[in-house]
Amino acid sequence: MKAALAAHPLVVVQAPPGAGKSTALPLALLNEGWLAGQSVVMLQPRRVAARAVAARLAEGLGQAVGETVGYRVRFESRVSARTRLEVVTEGILTRRLQRDPELAGVGLVILDEFHERSLNADLALALLREVQGALRGDLRVLIMSATLDPDLPARLGAPLVESMGRAYPVEVRYLPTDPVGRVEDLVARKVRQALADDEGDVLAFLPGVREIRAAAAALADVEAAVLPLYGDLGVGEQRRALLPDPGGRRKVVLATSIAETSLTIDGVRVVVDSGQSRTQAFDPATGLSRMVTGRVTRDSAAQRAGRAGRTAPGVAYRLWSERTHPLLPPARAPEVLEADLAPLTLELAAWGAPDPAALAWLDAPPAPRVETARRVLRELEAVDEAGRVTPEGQRLLEFPTHPRLAHLLTGGDARGLGPLAADLAALLEERDPLPPGSGADLSERVEALRAWRRGERARGDVAVLERVERLSRQWRSLLKVRPENEPPDPFGVGALIARAYPERVALARELQAGGVRGRFLLAGGQGVILPEGDALAGLRTLAVAHLDARPTGQGAEGRIYLAAPLDPAVLEDRAVWLESVRWETRSGTLLAQRERRVGALVLETRPLRDSSAGARAQALAGAIRGEGLHLLTFSPAAAALRARVEALRHWRTGDGWPDLSDAALLDTLEEWLGPRLGTARTREDLGRLDLLPALQAQLPWPLPQHLDDLAPTHLTVPTGSRIRLEYRADGSPPILAVKLQELFGLADTPAVNGGRTPVLLHLLSPAGRPVQITQDLRSFWNSSYFEVRKDLRGRYPRHPWPDDPWTHAPVKGVKRRGT
Fold first, then answer.
1. Same domain assignment for residues 721 and 634
2. Among 485, 503, 529, where does a domain finish?
3. Tens of pLDDT along 353-370?
4. Are 271 and 180 part of one and the same domain?
5. Helix, strand, or coil here: 175?
6. Which residues lie within the region annotated Disordered (predicted)?
7. What average pLDDT does the segment 61-78 reach?
């Protein structure tokens, strides 16, 4: 490892849990010559892990945290002038890079647990690689994890150092079949079995806090210390879970995925893995994120099992069958491909790279998600139209939170609502302190917090209120404001929520007879609804903070969880007059009006008598796309032209015949039909449009002069009759339906396409019914004709049925007298 870093600026190390990647390797590198007395910064994805790793590293030196080894996490740091090794969380590293791109005094950056591919880790790597290439050729970067994409070293052009470490063997045990039931109950039963059958402490993985609490209640009577471990716990409670029990009892630690990596929990010999994890999923269509519970990935399962072998041989119980294990996803997708990219996009704007393509990414942020993020940031006044950071955007980056909440905090500060903004930001980042059924009004949450702060009996979960107050205190410190304990102004709450979520200001829908109160439309266009009987249901305007982003069908409405009354004046101030020309499907008419709008919300309308032809054409084209080409009437000539051109496009692929298929015509409506839509206003008008000239105009010169030669509309048969050809758009041979007697004596099947494509003859009886379908007329006269003659001459005696069809003159009608 030392040699690799001495020779390469970027190195990848892979070693199993317990090998000392996080707790031994950084110390071993502190005195390397290439470091030249500079410091080391090590990135840890989670605050719990950052504190714990710093403590282990300091213990290895026989020092207290804050001397040679320190840490920095959000709102907390323990460092000193003597600190040479800092363990930091992801946002801290990004802030440091933004303030000092050269990382003065830093010789090595370690990205630990990189397999998680968090958004900030990918961003940090991209920024560090640019720093190495442009500013600091001597800066070294070390990427570490127990499980890594095997292609990663090659993708980075970096050497791979592997170590088997000193992990102990872990016996993995599966269930015989996949279980059925609540995950907390399954985990509790298996923990009881492990306490009875196995030695050592037990670490159980559950998807979230709710399941942890339920499992803890189910294990209340076991002879062991049952301790939770998740990110929102206080530091003291987290330490209790990580350290041996002071009374010497066995421990059962019930943890989220936070315990998968970096943390060594003393005494753990048994892991119980529920097989589930809870992650945040972002829906770019709605701009909303939600927590999703899903199956654990195979690499995470390996990390979890490895926790049992950190200090001694262990056992890992997996609560799924061995047959199911290979079916689990191999690894989690990089967060940059799935997450809300607003924070990353703002960081890039501040870095001076509003176009992500300017950086070297392992996986580039998807362009549509970046554009969604830019739209959000423009509404937050954080970037300009070109994507460059604004002064407001620079200020938002000073707050270690999502840009939305940072914008709420800056707005509160500017309006003299700093204490309220601090309380609201803290409440929105934490779980709801009030019990289910408490209604959606955020003002009630602020009042519950302030009443508890005044010393009144808590209304709601005390542990959550304590965390909210701790976070609010941090925001008040940054804003330099004192707490307020009076009931909040509901409109003040609504105004701040509207600042954080401008696309979630909502207007009540018109209440139809027998309709349901509490239905709203968001400025972003989504329909939402309050729980039945909610106190906010009678309001006209709302500001919505949290809602369910899972509408299940067309017209489905999301459910509002947290909202506040919004002063209608806020909407009035934001509204702008816009011209609207749109198609009303129900009436089948074009509606043109001026609308005073806030996004999708229409506050006032006025007739528009001078709408532009372009706007009308665009609206009509949208109507045709929405309802289909059946809104247009293709005359027989227009339909025939399409079929002829489509046939030639299949037959003569290199000649440039245009695509006139339904899909192509819908895609290019504005081009071929737009100029002819000017006078249309109704569904009937569209049906009366003459489409033939528009279609003919799609044929570039000189194709029109070749059309009749290669795909004639009619063919002349031996009797002199001109028979219409029926072309087919799929390129199959055109059909010539002709009475059999009109072809007597004709040997060769007629052809089109310059003689390359024989027609498909539908030979008709005197009554006009097909009696034979062929592309080989010669063969028909020599064979099948005689069977047809035998069947039909008795039925049609007045028509000629000669013994020799080759010599008989072609006839249009009945045979002449005497023949």
1. no
2. 485
3. 999 989 999 999 999 999
4. yes
5. strand
6. 797-819
7. 93
Please name the residue that has the structure tokens 């569904």: 683
Q: Which of 557, 574, 591 is the endpoint of a domain? A: 574
The residue with tokens 């002819």 is 676
Given a cut of 90, whether residue 636 has pLDDT beyond it is: yes
**Which helix (H) or strand (E) is 522 found in, with range?**
strand 519-522
Rounded-to-integer distance, Cα 278 and Cα 276, Å: 7
Judgement on whether residues 588 and 699 belong to the same structural domain of the protein: yes
Distances in Å between the Cα of 515 and the Cα atoms of 114, 510, 512 are 52, 9, 5
Return left, alpha or beta for 275; rule: phi > 0 is left, psi -120 to 50 is alpha, else beta.
left
* Cα 694 to Cα 622: distance, rounded to the nearest angstrom: 18
774 has pLDDT over 80: yes
Domain that holds residue 18: 2-162
Residue with tokens 């790279």: 353
Which pLDDT does position 2 carry in this prediction? 82
584 lies in the same domain as 454: no
- The per-residue pLDDT for range 546-565, each reduced to its tens digit, is 988 654 444 578 899 999 99
CB 565 within 8 A of CB 557: no
Nearest to 711 by CA among 760, 775, 643: 643
Is residue 762 located within the same domain as residue 625? no
> What length does the chain have?
819
Are residues 107 and 222 part of one domain? no
Which residues touch 427 (CB under 8 Å, ≥6 apart)?
A: 433, 442, 445, 446, 449, 468
CATH code, domain carrying 198 = 3.40.50.300
pLDDT of 763 higher than 70? yes
Cα angle for residues 23, 28, 34 (degrees, 5° grid): 135
One-letter amino acid for residue 239 of the chain: R
In this structure, which amino acid lies at residue 498? Answer: A
Domain membership flag for residue 801: no
Is residue 302 classed as helix, strand or coil in its secondary structure? helix
- Residue 463 host element (H or E): helix 462-479
For 426, the enclosing helix (H) or strand (E) is helix 418-429
- Pairing of the two strands 519-522 and 527-529: antiparallel
Average pLDDT over residues 294-317: 89
Query: Which is it for the CA torsion 411, 415, 418, 422, positive or negative?
Result: negative
Task: Answer whether 86's CB lies under 8 Å from 79's CB.
Answer: yes
Evaluate whether residue 817 is within a structural domain.
Answer: no
Look at residue 709 and tell me whether its pLDDT is greater than 70. yes
Q: Give the relative orientation of helices 342-351 and 90-99 as an angle to the nearest 10 degrees.
A: 20
In this structure, are 622 and 684 located in the same domain?
yes
Element (H or E) spanning 143, and its range?
Answer: strand 140-145
Is the C-alpha dihedral spanning 345, 396, 78, 463 positive or negative?
negative
Return the SS3 of 54: helix
Structure tokens at 370: 């970046």
| Residue 134 neighbours by CB under 8 Å, 6+ apart | none
Please report whether residue 804 resides in a domain.
Answer: no
Measured distance CA(198)–CA(700) in Å, rounded: 81
Helix 462-479 to helix 442-453 angle (10° resolution) is 90
Work out the mean pLDDT of the chain and round it to a whole number.
90
H-state helical runs in 681-814? 683-687, 692-696, 703-710, 777-779, 785-792
Structural domain total, the chain: 6
669, 647: one domain: yes
Interatomic CA distance for residues 713 and 718, integer angstroms: 17
Residue 227 counted as domain residue: yes
Instruction: Collect all residues with Cβ–Cβ distance below 8 Å to 636 and sequence separation of at least 6.
Output: none
Confidence check: pLDDT of 331 > 60: yes
